[in-house]
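ok so for the tutorial part 2 we go from a plain amino acid sequence to predicted structure tokens. step 1 is just haveing the sequence, like this:
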Amino acid sequence: MMTARQETAWQGELRHNEPMTKHTSWRVGGTADNYYRPVDLDDLCLFLAALPDNEPLTWVGLGSNLLVRDGGIRGTVISTSGMLNNIFLQKENTLYVEAGVSCAKVARFAAKQNLTGVEFLAGIPGTMGGALAMNAGAFGGETWDHVAQVTTISHAGNCTSRQPDEYQIAYRSVVGPKNEWFVSAALSLEQGDVQVGQAKIKKLLSQRGATQPTSKPSCGSVFRNPPNDHAARLIEVSGLKGTCIGGACVSEKHANFIINTGDATAADIESLIKKVADTVKQQHGIELLREAHIIGDAK
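step 2 — the prediction. this is what the tokens look like for a chain of 299 residues:
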């Protein structure tokens, strides 16, 4: 059980044995030992400073792109979604965005400011923190193409401003200083037209709705696209569309989505992920790398 070093002035909400089914887009997972929702960034700094140095930390935004195993998460989960939610025009062509702001909101806000470049974020069902952590992308755009600066926070609650050249950025991969987490970013954009931007967002969302099973619990794309190919194509030609384990099924609409049909467990989903990867490797000699993160303990 988490014990604070001392009584502090933190003001957020701390829950114990919190079901992660409430906080993941797959709607599965065990309980978190501790679950904290900070009031703001200052409050988060106070809370982290009060934790023991060895307290395990897990950061969760909208819980998309995340599979929490049925045994749950030890230590403390920090929830940023809807909490670290400031977004504003920092200076001309530059947006300040905190980690808990949804990607869709960033796309809409930028368009209203007559700024262009991040319309693709409208198609990503996560928060800015997650987008920064994995260089999220869609429809040909990638998050770090527009990052001018980031602010991170350490386990001890100390914030640091960092530049993009301090990170190794690749397709769905961001490697930087250890034991730091993103709390905000400055996004450098270009002047555009609000009506053009909003029309582009509408088109992207329409395309997403037409090609992806957005009405079913999923994590978005399960696997990264291999070089010069698409994971969905490889899964489909392997005859895996509609394949199920328990309540987890490969979507008939988009083969790179695994959906929870209603009663899936995390173990069902993880087993199906392995089956898909093994089958593609057997049939095509291509190793699919997961885009989805699997965390927590097995039951």
